[in-house]
């Protein structure tokens, strides 16, 4: 009897899953045929392709469509292909797509669960309002001397390294030192010690190791699972160490009446002025600055250095601009000057275009939205994008589309010069767009630019032959990272 019931349950499950796979067909939305149970994400599930590559393939296959219907396992999901539609969803109709799809439960993961990236609805809004004053241009300008100090020490550190270096590791030490001083007023000691505490924490926080990796892969493929199986992003020991560092620093400042105009001070003030802002909130947001502050920036910076090493002519042009800026400012690089450096800005944008640290963005429809097709479109009738439908913005694929970027696989900073005329705004969105765009864009961009400017002034850089080319992205990591490290040779300019 039990066996018969089990067979009936399996048969009904199969029946409804197949019926579900008609979801997009019924609405006239084009899309690839799903494979039973995994839908259209088999290659990511089998760790053969990164999500950036997988969505890229789907994006390229449906050239005539503004949006494509796929299935993440059994969940009907949309992949957007059209910049105008992306603008609508991220800006004009933001209220219908307010949340990111990825979800972490605050009670299971008290630190990452409070990060705005994972927060939802009004919770997200109030957190964003509270944290925004910590990221204004005034605040970023104030911390600039700290970044200058770290950059000078970075040059000395590179001088002592072997000529051939794993640049991800190198850039991570740089961004960790920046975050240590700008957020907490602490020296992360990543240039003095081989394995300082901050680096140990960082290695565990994001590193794609062991079971955590499987869990991360699972929530990036099927985010709804995070709710069901209580996934924790922050490992327990990282949570404990970060909490200790932050509470001890806060207490020290309180006891000694120390006021330092940095991110921790802003958090401290919030604790005093807002009854609902608890010590856990303070710790979570300081930890959030730490996590958000070093990894995406070190990924962006290491790809930027790689592209400069691989494109010597661009490297020479950038060095000319950097040298001129230093010469005109008494061998320093003031904040106002770095803002004016058009080639540095263009080359950074171009590196972000080729290798966006977030290869795709997962949004969530939070209120029914009626999609009205254009008259010449492959979709012929309007349909409702239902609340609860995940919507993917395939950044990597958009950034490499020849429709928007001529010769898209080449590194050509010139396309971003002269008012960025070669770019379509919503086809280039390495920091996202709209009210939920990256909160740390100013800080992230500035630390990458100053770090690269100091490197290029002091070293000629070359791709070492240990580097595996062409670059393939790691399917086991949720950010855009090469499968194999990139190796660069540094030659000191005398
Ligand atoms: C080059 C470096 C960086 C890149 C490429 C980057 C990229 C992004 C992207 C694509 C998003 C998602 C936007 C969206 O959903 O539309 C995001 C969100 C976010 N980023 Fe960054 N980021 C960088 C650096 C930073 C830094 C340095 C910080 C903080 C110190 C930071 C804090 C955040 C936060 C808090 C969010 C969530 C915003 C929200 O949902 O309201 N990011 N970032």
From TrEMBL:
Any one GO MF term held by the record is: monooxygenase activity
Q: Which InterPro entries match?
A: Cyt_P450, Cyt_P450_CS, Cyt_P450_E_grp-I, Cyt_P450_sf, Insect_CytP450_Detox
One Pfam family it belongs to? p450
Q: Where in the cell is it found?
A: Endoplasmic reticulum membrane; Microsome membrane
Which residues participate in heme binding? 438
Q: Name one GO cellular component term.
A: endoplasmic reticulum membrane
Q: Which Gene3D superfamilies match?
A: Cytochrome P450
User: What membrane topology does the annotation report for this chain?
Assistant: Peripheral membrane protein
UniProt lists the family membership as follows:
Belongs to the cytochrome P450 family.
Tell me the function of this protein.
Answer: May be involved in the metabolism of insect hormones and in the breakdown of synthetic insecticides.
**Name of the protein in question:** Cytochrome P450
Q: Which organism is it from?
A: Zophobas morio
Q: What is the lineage of its organism?
A: Eukaryota, Metazoa, Ecdysozoa, Arthropoda, Hexapoda
């Amino acid at each position: 009897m039990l066996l018969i019931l089990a067979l009936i349950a399996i048969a009904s499950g199969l029946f409804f899953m197949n019926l579900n796979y008609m979801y997009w067909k019924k609405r006239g939305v084009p899309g690839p045929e799903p494979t039973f149970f995994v839908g259209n994400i088999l290659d990511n599930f089998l760790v053969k392709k990164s999500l950036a590559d997988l969505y890229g393939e789907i994006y390229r296959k449906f050239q005539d469509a503004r949006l494509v219907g796929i299935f993440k396992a059994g969940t009907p999901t949309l992949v957007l292909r059209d910049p105008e539609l992306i603008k609508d969803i991220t800006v004009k109709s933001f209220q219908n797509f307010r949340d990111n799809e990825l979800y972490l439960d605050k009670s299971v993961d008290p630190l990452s669960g409070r990060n705005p990236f994972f927060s939802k609805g009004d919770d997200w809004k109030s957190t964003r309002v509270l944290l925004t004053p910590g990221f204004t241009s005034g605040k970023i300008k104030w911390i600039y001397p700290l970044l200058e100090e770290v950059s000078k020490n970075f040059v000395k550190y590179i001088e002592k390294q072997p000529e051939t270096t794993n640049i991800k590791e190198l850039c991570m030490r740089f961004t960790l030192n920046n975050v240590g001083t700008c957020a907490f007023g602490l020296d992360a000691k990543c240039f003095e010690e081989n394995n300082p505490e901050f680096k140990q924490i960082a290695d565990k926080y994001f590193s794609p190791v062991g079971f955590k990796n499987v869990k991360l892969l699972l929530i990036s493929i099927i985010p709804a699972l995070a709710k069901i199986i209580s996934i924790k992003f922050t490992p327990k020991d990282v949570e404990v160490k970060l909490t200790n560092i932050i509470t001890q620093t806060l207490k020290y400042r309180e006891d000694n009446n120390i006021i330092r105009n940095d991110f921790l001070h802003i958090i401290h003030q919030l604790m005093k002025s807002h009854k609902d802002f608890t010590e856990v909130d303070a710790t979570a947001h300081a930890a959030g600055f730490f996590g958000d502050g070093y990894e995406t920036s070190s990924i962006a910076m290491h790809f930027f250095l790689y592209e400069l090493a691989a494109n010597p002519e661009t490297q020479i042009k950038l060095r000319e601009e950097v040298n001129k800026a230093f010469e005109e400012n008494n061998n320093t690089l003031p904040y106002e000057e770095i803002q004016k450096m058009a080639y540095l800005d263009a080359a950074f944008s171009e590196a972000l275009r080729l290798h966006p640290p977030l290869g795709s963005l997962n949004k969530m429809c939070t209120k029914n939205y009626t999609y009205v097709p254009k008259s010449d479109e492959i979709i012929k009738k309007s349909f409702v994008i239902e609340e609860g439908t995940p919507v993917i913005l395939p950044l990597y694929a958009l950034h490499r589309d020849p429709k928007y970027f001529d010769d898209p696989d080449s590194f050509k900073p010139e396309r971003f010069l002269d008012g960025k005329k070669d770019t379509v705004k919503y086809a280039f969105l390495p920091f996202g767009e709209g009210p939920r765009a990256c909160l740390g864009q100013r800080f992230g961009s500035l630390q990458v630019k100053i770090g690269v400017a100091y490197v290029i002034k002091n070293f000629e850089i070359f791709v070492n032959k240990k580097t595996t080319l062409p670059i393939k992205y790691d399917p086991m990591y949720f950010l855009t990272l090469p499968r194999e490290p990139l190796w660069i040779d540094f030659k000191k300019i005398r």
